[in-house]
Amino acid sequence: MHIGLIGGIGVAATVVYYQRLVAAAAERGVSKLDLTIVHGEIQELIRNNLADRRAEQAKAFLPLVERLDHAGCDCVALSSLGAHFCLDELVALSPLPIVSAVAPLDAFFAERNIKRIGLLGTRVVMRTRLYGQLVDTGAIVLDDEIDRLGQSYQDMAVAGACTPEQRALFLEAGKRMIAAGADAIVLAGTDLNLAFDGQDTGYPVIDALDFHVALLADLAAGRRSLHDLSR
User: Fold this and answer.
1) May I ask the CATH class of domain 103-208?
2) What is the C-alpha separation between 126 and 141, in angstroms, rounded?
3) CATH architecture for the domain at 2-101+210-229
């Protein structure tokens, strides 16, 4: 199966998607991964995300999806959980199935008996508790820190690098949410690996990016069908 990926939102997240998808596909015996990546505009996404301009962002993504369609892709994935704020609007326009990064998470939490999670990501991800798509799982956020955490996340995503101060902020936020009753911290922003990779946090951390990559790798290997995974 030919996977299409909208990247550039941001660049560091795209690189991690590429690295982990290639590795996951190889683990599943895929000797030749069919993958095409197009470059999205992160500043445009940030403006539309903060203003909740879902229709406008979906229209901005549409030419990229059409380019992937013309390249022969069978499905499309967004390399940003923040970009999923306009997923329904994009699905309505897209000529290709969109593979969601959000939909599989709730089922995973339920299977693992994870009752409450702490969320880190964009302002919108935190304010909406992952777009209100968690049915069986409760979510904790630091309401008094949403703007600070969201701005730090945005700055890190644009720069493609994490400062020591940003890392300390995110790690401490995770610790506070665990103390508030979260069973695990979910990295609901695909650039958060820059802050958390290689860190001994002392608490459970779940990277949402890994679930999305696993689903895409399963599609590439023929282990899953678009009927099950696309929206």
Assistant:
1) alpha beta
2) 6
3) 3-Layer(aba) Sandwich (3.40)
Q: What is the pLDDT of residues 196-227, one digit of tens each?
A: 999 999 999 999 999 999 999 999 999 999 87
Whether the pLDDT of residue 231 is over 60: the answer is no
Residue range 49-80, pLDDT digits in tens:
999 999 999 999 999 999 999 999 999 999 99
The separation between the first and the last C-alpha atoms of the chain, rounded to the nearest angstrom, is 17
Global pTM value: 0.87
CATH 3.40.50.1860 residue ranges in the chain?
2-101+210-229, 103-208
In terms of DSSP H, where are the helices of 5-77? 11-27, 42-50, 54-70
| CA-wise closest residue to 157 among 4, 53, 50, 36 | 50
**Token pair recorded at residue 133:** 């798509």
